[in-house]
Design brief:
Elements: E1 2-10, E2 20-26, E3 48-49, H1 52-59, E4 66-70, H2 80-89, E5 93-98, E6 110-113, H3 128-137, H4 141-150, E7 153-159, H5 163-173, E8 183-187, H6 192-209, E9 212-213, H7 217-222
Parallel strand pairs: 2-4, 4-5, 5-6, 6-7, 7-8, 8-9
Antiparallel strand pairs: 1-2, 1-3
Helix pairs in contact: 1-2
The chain binds iron/sulfur cluster.
Iron/sulfur cluster (SF4) is lined by residues 29, 31-33, 36, 38, 41-42, 71-73, 99, 116.
Length: 228
């Protein structure tokens, strides 16, 4: 399994915000969001191939109950099945961060699904191949429905522009048995100015609709420093 970094930090997004976690970042993604904040795991994937035992040994360098398996797209790797099983055997709490386009029968305590909206696609003019592939693969309602049925979940949408809100409504209308308490809307951006700009209209929208507004505290705490 190709891994780009393993480090301990504090979860900055979602229902477990503020929780100390070990982050295991798989390298490689089947999508190419233009705003990807980990291009070293998608656009220009880095990292080394590690065995499951080597990944577990790195996780065990920290005395930390929570483990976040992220990427890139960790669900690309079938090794995630034995890795999550080994971590579950060690009674770790496992979060998996996925765009929800791929299914694997993993052990997982919180399936953190971040569906990618049409506005996430790279520009057609500069990236025609990835624009088409991204738009073809980004929306798999059957996969998201299965993940929501089988796991404790959060649905975390990255919102770039007001028009995205209508697309989210259409998305949610197509899914069954969704708990509104588990829907989080998060502003797109990493810089304080762009986050503040989008927070200005997104937070009130969440209040009106009964969704959770989801700040991106890691950028407030650490900026865009890798491994933080
Ligand atoms: S799905 Fe996630 S890792 Fe992949 S390109 Fe989009 S933001 Fe980056």
């Amino acid at each position: 399994m190709r891994i780009v970094e393993v480090y301990q930090s504090v979860q900055g997004e979602g229902l477990l915000t503020g929780t100390a976690c070990v982050f295991v970042r798989a390298s490689g993604c089947n999508l190419r969001c233009w705003f990807c904040d980990t291009p070293y795991a998608s656009w220009r994937p880095e990292g080394v191939d590690l065995t499951i035992d080597e990944v577990v040994a790195k996780v065990e360098e920290w005395d930390c109950q929570h483990v976040v398996l992220t990427g890139g797209e960790p669900m690309l790797f079938s090794e995630l099945i034995p890795l999550t099983q080994q971590l579950a055997n060690r009674e770790r709490h496992i979060t998996i961060e996925t765009a929800g386009t791929l299914y694997l029968p993993v052990a997982c305590d919180l399936m953190s699904i971040s569906p990618k909206l049409s506005s996430s696609a790279p520009a057609l003019a500069s990236n025609p191949h990835w624009h088409r592939r991204h738009q073809r693969e980004r929306c798999r309602m059957d996969v998201i429905q299965r993940l929501v049925r089988e796991y404790v979940y959060q649905l975390k949408f990255v919102v770039d522009r007001p028009a995205d809100c209508q697309e989210i409504e259409e998305y949610l209308a197509a899914l069954e048995d969704i708990d509104r308490e588990r829907i989080l809307l998060m502003p797109q951006g990493t810089h304080p100015d762009e986050l503040a700009d989008r927070t200005g209209w997104l937070a009130p929208y969440c209040q009106i609709k009964g969704y959770r507004f989801c700040p991106r505290k890691q950028f407030e705490w650490y900026g865009t420093v890798r491994g933080s």
